[in-house]
Specification:
This is PTS galactitol transporter subunit IIB. One of its GO terms (molecular function) is protein-N(PI)-phosphohistidine-sugar phosphotransferase activity. One of its GO terms (biological process) is phosphoenolpyruvate-dependent sugar phosphotransferase system. Keywords: Transferase. It comes from Granulimonas faecalis. The chain is an alpha/beta fold. It has a single domain, classed as Response regulator (Rossmann fold), CATH 3.40.50. 39% of the residues lie in helices and 23% in strands. It contains 4 helices and 4 strands. The protein has a 4-stranded parallel sheet with strand order 2-1-3-4. Strand 1, helix 1 and strand 2 form a beta-alpha-beta unit. The chain is globular and about 30 Å long. The N and C termini lie close together (11 Å).
Length: 93
C-alpha cells in the first residue's frame, strides 16, 4: 500500500481537485485500492513527509522533505501531465 501526501496552500481546495484527477489516473493504471492519499497544507509537508512514499504538491517542493516530490500543477491544470504522470507511476512501481 503506497501512502501519498497531497499538498496545496490550504490543504483543501486545490488539493481536492488534484486528488480527484490523481485518483482517476491511478485507478485507470491498475492501482485502485493500492494507495491512500492524505491532504495537507504545504507548510505541514516537511513534518509529515517521513511517513509517506511521495508528495504531490501544487507548489514548489518545500525544504527538508523526507520523501520524493512530484509536481502536482499539471494534475490541477489537466495539461502537460506526461512528466508528472511518469513520476507517479515510477514511484508507485
Amino acid at each position: 500500500m503506497k501512502r501519498i501526501l497531497l499538498a496545496c496552500g490550504s490543504g483543501f481546495a486545490t488539493s481536492t481537485a488534484v486528488r480527484a484527477r490523481l485518483e482517476r489516473f491511478l485507478d485507470s493504471h491498475g492501482y485502485e485500492g493500492a494507495y491512500t492519499i492524505r491532504q495537507c497544507k504545504i507548510a505541514e509537508a516537511p513534518r509529515l513527509s517521513a511517513g509517506f512514499d511521495f508528495l504531490v504538491a501544487t507548489m514548489m517542493a518545500p525544504q527538508h522533505l523526507e520523501c520524493p516530490y512530484v509536481n502536482g500543477v499539471p494534475f490541477l491544470l489537466g495539461e502537460n501531465m506526461a512528466a508528472s504522470e511518469r513520476a507517479v507511476l515510477a514511484l508507485m512501481g
